[in-house]
Amino acid sequence: MDPALPYFVAITTLAVVLQMVILGALYFSIRKSTEKMTRTVDDMHRQVTPILSRLQILLDDVQPRISSMVANANEVTEIARGQAYKVDRVFTEAVDRLRVQVIRADQMLTGFLESMEETGVELKRNVWEPVRQASAMIRGVKAGLEFFRSGGSGARRESGERPRTGTEDELFI
Questions:
Q1: How far apart are CA 150 and CA 165, in angstroms?
Q2: pTM as predicted
Q3: pLDDT for 23-40, tens place per residue?
């Protein structure tokens, strides 16, 4: 046997024992960490479980209300849309009626103005023409009378003067 063999066996044994001590320490350290982790998880579980159950109860309680609110909002939207259609229809009908009334008023006013124009033309033709003719006749008679009054001579005309009558001044406006 080799004289170094017992030293080798002793060193190997020491290495194995040291390895076993390290593995034992590692085992106990991991076990301790696992227990701590388990306790922490259990504590967290105890704290979170009531919160989650309350949250679940709250969600179960609120969910029908939210569904009801959404349904009500949908119904309000449908009603508002229907009312908007009705209002649009009423305004459209009102505008159409107003348009018809404006057209009728325009036609009536146009007819009235045409009647007034025709009346003016008739008045001018039937009243003013005879008045003008009568006025011309009166002027002619006055000129004739003036002519006879002045003696019928053309003396004034020879001198270049034109006989002036008061009626000419009155007629000049």
A1: 11
A2: 0.38
A3: 999 999 999 999 999 999
Q: How many CB atoms lie within 10 A of CB 88?
A: 10
Amino acid identity for residue 97 in this structure: R
Phi-psi region of 165 (alpha: psi -120 to 50; beta: other; left: phi over 0): beta
Closest by Cα among 147, 154, 130 to 167: 147
Residue 71, phi then psi, degrees to nearest 5: -65, -40
Burial class of 163 by CB neighbour count within 10 A (0 to 12, 13 to 18, 19+) = middle
CA 28 from centre of chain: 78
Mean predicted lDDT score pLDDT of the chain: 86
142, 165 contact by CB (below 8 A) = yes
Instruction: Collapse the DSSP code of 159 into the 3-class scheme (helix H, G, I; strand E, B; otherwise coil) and give the result.
Output: coil
Asked whether the beta carbons of 136 and 104 are under 8 A apart, the reply is no
CA 66 to chain centroid: 32
